[in-house]
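Example record for the data management plan.
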Amino acid sequence: MDKQLSLQVCIIIMMILFLMFAGLSLVDMECLAMARGGLFCVFLLAMAVIDFRTGLLPDKGNLYLAALGLVMAAIVGSLRDALLGALLGAALLFALRTLSRGGIWLGWQGTLLALMLAFALGACLALVLLGIGRLGRRDRLAFGPFLSAGAYLSYIGSAAFWSAYEVLL
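Corresponding structural encoding:
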């Protein structure tokens, strides 16, 4: 695959980033959380594009994302929650990698929600693609875009989701 993205793909990526920023602006959050979210969106989209194109999430990118997330958590004073999120996310993703052989930013509840959303979104799209014949049972589907989408949705809606969940209890 060539190294350069086509103009059409660049435009689509910019549109997605614009929509992500627009989604951030709809959520009632402080300026620091908004700036933090914007940076998070850029990294998530970059990782999704890399995984979509290569089928791999690069370790270096994950380490940058983790380090920056810990720095941000230390700035806003939620380092303990960030570390718990990182451990939960790392453990679940390690288990996934081990089983398939092949959240520092969100805290533990946000990481859990992001992973649930990633699996749900990936499963829904896989079922649709299987149903219309665009994907075979042995074909692979990049998981990074779904992880990024789940993390983004968790970042902007985690508090509302968990509040709604607690009402149901």
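Summary line stored alongside the record: The CA atoms of residues 85 and 137 lie 33 Å apart.
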